[in-house]
Design a protein that fits this description.
Blueprint lengths: L5 H4 L1 H20 L6 H13 L2 E2 H8 L3 H13 L3 E5 L7 E5 L1 H25 L1 H17 L1
Antiparallel strand pairs: 1-3, 2-3
Amino acid sequence: MKTPTRQQLCNCFAIRQAARHVTRLYERHLSDADLTSAQFSIIAILDETGGMTMLELAGTLVMDRTTLLRAIKPLQRDDLLKSESSPNDPRQLVYSLTSAGERRFKKALPLWMKAQEEFEAEVGAQDAARIREELLGLVNSA
């Protein structure tokens, strides 16, 4: 029996490789809506919540604000997102979908569903649910 390499024993390495694999799968499907998986996550959350501040969005996505801003800029450029001053604190911006953003989300949702189905066919629906639950539990416990 061969001794495992450091990479084979490294949790970070395994998770990052799996994340790249899953990202490629989803982005292959979402490309028909001209969205990356990160951009889809942003518009999906904003569709669900109606609007969030940068801090709220960064916390929900577990992203630093600089990375999030890089993902938001093309969405704003393409008129999919708008930002308005928060009624609670005019110094904070609240991001929400424009009508074009809502239409793009509706176009992307069935593509995302196909990616979900392909992933579940690859690993099995029960294992997909277990993996998702464990990963979300890891993030929520941090």
